[in-house]
Write a structure and sequence with these properties.
- With 278 residues, the protein is of the alpha+beta class.
- The protein has two domains: 130 residues, no CATH class; 93 residues, Gyrase A, domain 2 (2-Layer Sandwich), CATH 3.30.1360.
- It is built from eight helices and 14 strands.
- The strands form three sheets. Strands 2-3-6-7-10-8 form a six-stranded antiparallel sheet.
- A hairpin with a 5-residue loop joins β2 and β3.
- The longest helix has 12 residues.
- The relative contact order is 0.18.
């Protein structure tokens, strides 16, 4: 728990370009992946070892066709569920964010409850989406294989598609990614906490969503910074039950010039103690 508290005490930035290719579960290349083989077999797909040693698996909902104000959401923008394990073996911690259709919520929750996995939050991320999408955050401690089996049983009650092969070459996605990085002051693959997701919508514009990870005193300054830059705040809530310090997750939405929006996000980041790119 002490290690968890130290990780949660800092807010970092990850920058993701939500391009046309879908999120996929990639086979891990890290040499440590062998120790996670039993978890992979139990959960039915492969993930990747993270820099801190955790093992993370992606569950993109490419089966869901969701629109917000005429924009079709790609899994990389707002439909990319995930589950992570702190370590293999008998004393593992699991956390995750499951993307669910409304009619999947109750059966998934019941399945997780039967198998000893806690539901720590259930909420929206965006507004005016069609059809409605819910996000279920989970947590638990115990044997990693048993936890993985519980997650697999829960996902079996959804229409989650099978894992696909990794995407190959990156293509021109139609927005000024260099300008976005310059405006934000962060590289595009830090992969830590606060998520800023861009999906090209044509003409140099992008739809953006994601979540800021904030302590209580940062919430309203960030709201003001986002709204003053034309970015809508769509949700503020918790994801966990007993973290220290208390953290709040703020979701947002806009569809406008990509670099302009990046500058607005930068203004909001400047109201936090997030680590800036060097």
């Amino acid at each position: 728990m002490n290690r968890t508290k130290r990780m949660l005490a800092l807010s970092f930035v990850t920058f993701i370009i939500g391009c046309v290719s879908q999120l996929v579960a990639q086979a891990p290349s890290n040499e440590k992946s062998g120790e996670w083989q039993a978890v992979e077999q139990a959960i039915g797909r492969s993930g990747q070892v993270q820099p801190d040693g955790a093992y993370k698996l992606s569950f993109p909902r490419s089966d869901l066709k969701v629109t917000v104000n005429g924009v079709e959401l790609k899994p990389a923008l707002a439909l990319g569920g995930w589950v992570a394990f702190s370590k293999p073996g008998a004393d593992s911690m699991i956390m995750g964010d499951l993307v669910l259709a409304e009619d999947e919520v109750t059966p998934v929750m019941s399945s997780l409850e039967r198998n000893g996995v806690q539901v720590t939050a259930l909420h929206n991320h965006v507004l005016h989406e069609s059809p409605r999408v819910m996000y279920m955050h989970i947590g638990g401690h115990g044997d990693a294989v048993k936890l993985a089996t519980a997650v697999k049983e829960a996902f079996a009650l959804t229409k989650l598609p099978a894992a696909k092969a990794p995407a190959t070459a990156q293509q021109d996605i139609g927005i000024d990614t260099a300008g976005i990085e310059q405006a934000l002051g962060v590289p595009n693959s830090m992969g830590l906490a606060t998520a800023l997701n861009f999906q090209p919508t044509g003409g140099g514009k992008a739809a953006i969503t994601g979540d800021f990870v904030l302590i209580g005193t940062e919430v309203n300054p960030v709201i003001q910074a986002l709204r003053s830059n034309g970015i809508e705040v769509t949700a503020v809530h918790s994801h966990m039950l007993d973290e220290e310090p208390r953290l709040f997750f703020m979701h947002f939405w806009a569809n406008d010039d990509a670099v302009k929006l990046a500058k607005g996000l930068r203004a909001a980041l400047d109201k936090t103690n997030s680590q800036k790119g060097k």
